[in-house]
Amino acid sequence: MQKTLTIATRKSPLALWQAYHVRDALEQMYPGLNVQLLEMSTEGDERLDVSLTKIGGKGVFVKALEHALFDGRADLAVHSLKDVPMALPDGLELACYLARETPSDAMVCRSDLVPWSSMASVPQGARIGTSSLRRVAQLMAIRPDLHITPVRGNLGTRLAKLDANAFDALMLATAGLKRLDLAHRIAFETRPEDVLPACGQGILGIEIRSEDAAVRQILAPLADQEATPVARCERALNRFLNGGCQVPIAAYAIREGSQLWLRALVGSADCSQVIRAEARGLVTAPEDLGVLVGQDLERQGARELLAGVGHS
Is 181 a catalytic residue? Predict the structure, then answer.
């Protein structure tokens, strides 16, 4: 077995938490293994003055790490799965999916406000910060009175902007807040009935070179049996619709015994329209279920809606 592995990771606190989480799990599992981190800055981290859609979507957070895999500086890269493009470069693959943290979105109120308890308690005309079109489309569907403003930067930067009165609240992934010990900032977590999460939200995916059978074997025990089929199902739906990470697509699969239940939606470019679909299928055929629900959305006009966002 290899004695040393290198993990490519972004330098943000959340990305480092994810990389250290994988490092610690590997070193505990293989006492003789030394796992190092290769910390990198990506275009998405450096260009905070422009929207992600203008510089290639959330995939810009992944590309630099993939270059490190290709040129041999790293053996694996740890990603938040919701940021990973549906189509990976030839020669790379997602080797395993780790256990899912809470997949919901969370509302985080400004520190000087009494925390809200639900979507119904959000004040009329409240200012909400989020750069996710998926969140915007769903928020507008249930609360068209809200004023939604884009916000970029890592979690600490966003919270600083919030507490400086740029917004009344932020909508963020619950998983990131919990992983960075910021769960105390959560006013409430959204329900899937109100806001479906992004494909793969809360799951960590580990990317490797496809030819690297040794690393694949080392990582195999980390693969979570609950997260793997739901991740494959959600990504299959997004892939079928040719969606990226920055378009208004949501997908959430949960396991029910021998079946998966997949709920999904697609929003329009201006986030004024949302179409939904759901179905159940065998846990042993997660991609088939993803395609099935994708076809339902397609019949309802999903591709036309996504074409308006620049993806079809």
Answer: no
Q: What is the pLDDT of residue 269?
A: 76
Give the model confidence (pLDDT) of 92-147 as tens digits: 999 999 999 999 999 999 999 999 999 999 999 999 999 899 999 999 999 999 99
State the Cα–Cα distance between residues 243 and 227, nearest whole angstrom.
21
End-to-end distance of the chain based on CA atoms, in angstroms? 44
Weakest mean pLDDT among 53-57, 185-189, 225-229: 53-57
Task: Measure the CA–CA gap between 204 and 176, rounded to whole angstroms.
Answer: 11
- Cα gap 176→210, rounded to integer Å: 28
Enter the tokens of residue 145: 């009175």
Q: Cα dihedral sign for 144, 145, 146, 148?
A: positive
Measured CA to CA, the distance from residue 215 to residue 200 in angstroms comes to: 23
pLDDT value for 52? 45
User: Among the options 75, 83, 105, 212, which is catalytic?
Assistant: 83
Q: What is the pTM of this model?
A: 0.91
155 Cβ contact partners less than 8 Å away, ≥ 6 residues apart: 12, 13, 14, 172, 176, 177, 180, 182
Please name each of the domains of the chain with its CATH number.
1-98+203-224 (3.40.190.10), 105-189 (3.40.190.10), 225-312 (3.30.160.40)
What's the rounded Cα separation, in Å, for the pair 15 and 290? 28
Which two tokens mark 224?
């979570």
Secondary structure of 100-149 in HEC code, one letter for each residue = CCCCCEEEEECCCCCCCCCHHHCCCCCEEECCCHHHHHHHHHHCCCCEEE
**For 105-258, where are the E strands, in sequence order?**
105-109, 127-129, 147-149, 169-173, 186-189, 204-209, 249-256
User: Cβ distance 17 to 72 under 8 Å?
Assistant: no
Mean predicted confidence (pLDDT) in 174-195: 96
* Residue range 50-79: mean pLDDT, rounded: 78
